[in-house]
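Please predict the structure of the following assembly.
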Amino acid sequence: MGEAEKAVIDVRNLKVEFPGRRGTVTPLSDISLSIRAGEILGVVGESGAGKSMTGLAIQGLLERPGRISGGEIWLGDRRIDTLDDRAMEQIRGREIGAIFQDPLTSLNPLFTVGSQLTETIRLHLSMGKVEARARAVQLLRDVGIPAPEERIDHYPHQFSGGMRQRVVIALALSASPKLIIADEPTTALDVSIQAQIISLLRRLCKEKQTAVMLVTHDMGVIAEAADRVAVMYAGRLIEIGPVEQVLHAPRHPYTQGLMASIPSLGARVVKLNQIDGSMPRLDAIPAGCAFNPRCVYAGSRCLRDRPELIPVGDGASACWLNAGGTA
Ligand SMILES: Nc1ncnc2c1ncn2[C@@H]1O[C@H](COP(=O)(O)OP(=O)(O)OP(=O)(O)O)[C@@H](O)[C@H]1O
Ligand code: SF4
Ligand SMILES: [Mg+2]
């Protein structure tokens, strides 16, 4: 990779474990992905696949007793999975911004949006009050809030859902982070607003050269916003590649089923649960390929050996069929 192509975030063989009374479960196993500056990586997969957990692990926000038990996470030249809580607190907000499904989880109802923006700006950047307020107004303008000089003194409840999510995007961008993790950022919004928020996120990511990890169930959002797509299944990454390839020429049988179950890729609000059978529970992930009970191509090797991601086309797929032989 050349300097310009260097990854902002590089996750290598990440493994997350939760020790429990009935044994240890492994919600994430061998996840490797990277995102470059100005690139949007869409992350898809049915409920419980590990999408949110991957974002939380990167941010150092795993709920205890969950822990990273293997692999490495690099933010540029810095390894961050080994940092303590205090160091991670400084990275969150400053270098990694977060956007969650519900804007109200990121905004405090008791304070004006301006005070929350300026506080975050001043916490992370050495700026005086006046300068921070000017930056806050500019951020609100950047995210398309009309009359930002007035709106800055309003409280979160005085904004509509869509405008509130714009404020959250401004907050996430306030210290110019290198990476933004957006977990279902439009799910709670009116369908009519969703496309506006997604195109805003895409425009800002390109302008500011922010790397974005965009978790969503919505293939319409993926088609519009993502440059590359990662497909997760039962805590594993099973396919990754450029958006055109993953959407229109998927290589993994699970992704193929996923795409075939979507009547039109333009259609919105399609849930990814239309393949026969269901994803295994964490304490019952089968040996070999985790998808084998649902896969029409499954052969003896699939029951025995776990497939690694194998380069195919411009991406990679974790399926023995892509290894050049039979399954
Ligand atoms: N605190 C926890 N302790 C143990 N297991 C957990 C915990 N939180 C989540 N899990 C499990 O980890 C797995 C991955 O969950 P995750 O929230 O990442 O799924 P997801 O892909 O984001 O799903 P969704 O689309 O529903 O948001 C699930 O099986 C979930 O039950
Ligand atoms: S490895 Fe085997 S079971 Fe898994 S997706 Fe490929 S063919 Fe199906
Ligand atoms: Mg989730």
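The longest strand covers residues 7-20. The radius of gyration is 20 Å.
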